[in-house]
Design brief:
6-stranded mixed beta sheet, single chain, Chloramphenicol Acetyltransferase, alpha+beta
């Protein structure tokens, strides 16, 4: 492998700073049925590391900033844990969200195999990434490639001749800045601040960042319901993402704010910028190519699910057309971000930026089986305890099932309330599908 060094880009550096404080670590869980060999899994992991430059680096701090450096980086570690109970994976995943990467020559990715105690049972492959090197698409393709390599190695295929992909420059250097509508930002800057209402946040109890912890709640929406939701979204001229936003907002209004009349709630949505780059960044590249759009919605007594879903879609589409996600990445403010600023942000409103936030990875057509292994379930989350939304959803559609991972920060939001919020989200979707009118 060739040696290289590159300075972190603006977004990469932001995630690096948040990571060093203890937040925004990205965890992915693949639940796999079958007998998993740790030795074959390690070989597949080594092959993936050889293929992707950002899996070959650690971070070094120099006088002029932080750099990715490949020289001296060790192999991605694989830990094997024999499962004691079937739900142990959820606790392990939560622990991983709070475990920083060492400040040595360790790579910015690690893996745990949580091995089933029964032959042919369910194992969990838990992948943890430093958010500076991976976005949602990166993680999903990593899982797919890992299992493909595993299948090939298991049947004796030689995969030693793997070419290393090109190391890409920082995101802000690749973005097509011509997509930013300049007049929009000039006009927005002239508007009085009071025109934008402050969103209401969920903060049951306060605590310093060091005493806050991200907890997870999971739900699965069946194939039948997911297919009905897709069809209904088409009829209602909205998207699955718009429906997810509406379900999160209405669920929060009901459970956290007791259906108060006239609520201002904010919804943050992750947006992929791969197609906004020149040249376009392919799905096979590992890196962080995302931004976020944040929209405020006024919920009234007569607000309906599908009206809100259409509004969510419309506002996000408008922001993207104006180039807002690109402008956020290229903002001068990112050039001056430091640890003190993130600490202040974490102290303000307990680090809560939005009422709800959604990372929707969309639909991935991964294989049903990889040789003797069968991929059953997928979940993911990022640590929200330093900064993040009051209630966060990670969604991915796999084999026409919608897998949902909800994150909340204790003690800001209690585990009891988080369960109620997740249940209300699911109930909102079911109730929307029952409604026959095209409101």
């Amino acid at each position: 492998m060739n040696l290289f060094k590159r300075k972190l880009g603006l977004l990469e550096n932001l995630f690096h700073i948040i990571h060093d404080l203890g937040g925004m670590i990205d965890v992915n869980v693949a639940r796999v049925e079958g007998e998993v060999s740790a030795s074959i899994l390690q070989k597949a992991l080594n092959a993936l590391q050889k293929r992707h430059p950002l899996l070959q680096v650690h971070i070094v701090k120099l006088e002029d900033g932080a750099y990715f450096q490949s020289e001296g980086t060790i192999k991605i570690p694989l830990s094997v844990i024999d499962k004691q109970d079937e739900n142990q994976w959820l606790q392990v995943a939560e622990d991983e969200l709070h475990q920083k990467f060492p400040t040595d020559t360790s790579p910015l990715c690690r893996m745990i195999l949580l091995r089933s105690s029964t032959s042919g049972g369910i194992n969990e492959i838990i992948l943890t990434f430093h958010h500076a090197i991976a976005d949602g698409t990166s993680c999903m393709n990593f899982i797919n490639d890992l299992l493909l390599y595993y299948e090939k190695i298991a049947v004796g295929e030689d995969i030693s001749e793997i070419a290393t992909m090109e190391l890409l420059p920082p995101l802000e250097e690749m973005l097509n800045k011509n997509l930013i509508v300049q007049n929009n930002f000039e006009e927005a800057g002239q508007k009085p601040a009071q025109e934008t209402p402050k969103p209401q946040l969920i903060i049951e109890n306060e605590a310093p960042a060091s005493q806050r912890r991200t907890h997870l709640v999971t739900r699965i929406i069946s194939k039948e319901t997911t297919l009905r939701l897709k069809e209904r979204c088409k009829q209602q001229k909205t998207t699955i993402h718009g429906a997810l936003c509406a379900a999160m907002l209405l669920g929060t209004a009901k459970i956290a704010f007791n259906n108060q009349i006239s609520l201002s709630l904010s919804c943050g949505s992750n947006v992929s910028l791969r197609k906004s780059c020149q040249p376009e960044v392919t799905s096979g590249s590992i890196g962080c190519f995302i931004s976020i759009v944040e929209e405020i919605h006024s919920l009234e007594e007569n607000t309906t699910f599908w009206d809100l879903a259409r509004e969510c879609k419309s506002k996000i589409t408008n922001s993207i057309s104006l180039g807002t996600p690109i402008a956020n990445i290229c903002s001068e403010r990112l050039q001056y971000v430091n640890e003190d600023m993130i600490t202040q942000l974490s102290n303000h409103n307990m680090g809560r930026k939005n009422t709800v936030e959604i990372s929707n990875r969309g639909q991935f057509n991964l294989a049903d089986k990889y040789g003797e292994l069968k991929l059953k379930e997928l979940y993911f989350a990022t640590g929200q305890h330093w900064v993040g939304g009051s209630f966060w959803l990670g969604a991915v559609t796999f084999h026409e099932q919608l897998f949902c991972t909800f994150s909340h920060v204790v003690p800001l939001v209690s585990s009891k309330k988080a369960q109620l919020l997740a249940d209300s989200f699911i109930d909102n979707i079911f109730q929307a599908l029952k409604s026959e009118s095209l409101d």
